[in-house]
Amino acid sequence: MATLGIPQNTIAVLQKYNFNFQKKFGQNFLIDTHVLDKIINAAEITKEDFVLEIGPGIGTMTQYLCENAREVVAVEIDKNLIPILEDTLKEYDNVTVINEDVLKVDINKLAEEKNNKKPIKVVANLPYYITTPIIMGLFESHVPIDSITIMVQKEVAERMQVGPGTKEYGALSLAVQYYAKPEIIANVPPNCFMPRPKVGSAVIRLTRHKETPVQVEDEKLMFRIIRASFNQRRKTLVNGLKNSGELSFSKEIIEESIEELGVPLTIRGEALSLEQFAMLSNILSKKTESKS
After folding, report:
1. Predicted TM-score of the model (pTM)
2. Are 169 and 226 in contact (CB under 8 A)?
3. All domains in the chain, ordered by first residue
4. DSSP 114-153
5. What are phi and psi of 21, to 5 degrees?
6. Given this model, what pLDDT does residue 188 score?
7. What span, in angstroms and rounded, lies between the C-alpha atoms of 243 and 231?
8. What is the DSSP letter of 103?
9. pLDDT (tens digit, 9 = 90+) per residue, 92-137?
10. In what order do the strands lie in the sheet with 201-208?
């Protein structure tokens, strides 16, 4: 089988099928075997593992996963890639390709059927516009996940790692750090892809926490508060929460809660740590309960 990580083999496959890159799917195929090795090593894939791959493309990384894992399920949204995948993966009997939007796949059911309900490993090369919904979807649905190793736009990877007070800090940083430990494994320059993206990429591994680092009464409320705090970055936390369509607290309750948290009323959301957001969420939960 011709390894697709070698550029001329990728070109040959694309020509054979007259494949056209779809802008709407943000397709950039990896053509660097060193990077593929790094991803497999970072994800710590062994013959014990069941792997869910999101966005296999023409099967470049899928081939590597099949070599290293017990079983692979690859979810590809672009139906034009399905015949190509049937061809490039025909030598492997441990892979299933599903033509579907991963946000619509019942991953809990997959983990149950394929992995005895044990946590699965997720590997993906994601276009940047869909990175956040997919990662949040995986975490929020409480699918049993051991780790997610993904290739994303470099600045998105950086955003996942940063803390309060930095320009990149936002809802994604908090969400990722609430559920997992983020670790950038490698930076990947544009020339490792076909077609070349305009921006650099990075491989980041998110290792799921056994227990969340903060205790929060109402996870959904905390994330609504976090989103509201960053929706209007220039505004104070009070105004962000008051103006949010997702929250219905009075200005008075919001101000009382922020004072109880022990921070100034003029504070902006981007100054709060995950611990403080959890505390604020718990304070607001209690106030709502005592009213009802």
Report:
1. 0.89
2. no
3. 7-208 (3.40.50.150), 219-291 (1.10.8.100)
4. HHTTPPEEEEEE--HHHHHHHHHHHHHTT--EEEEEEEEE
5. -65, 135
6. 94
7. 10
8. G
9. 999 999 999 998 999 999 999 999 989 999 999 887 778 888 998 8
10. 95-99, 71-76, 50-54, 120-125, 145-153, 201-208, 180-188
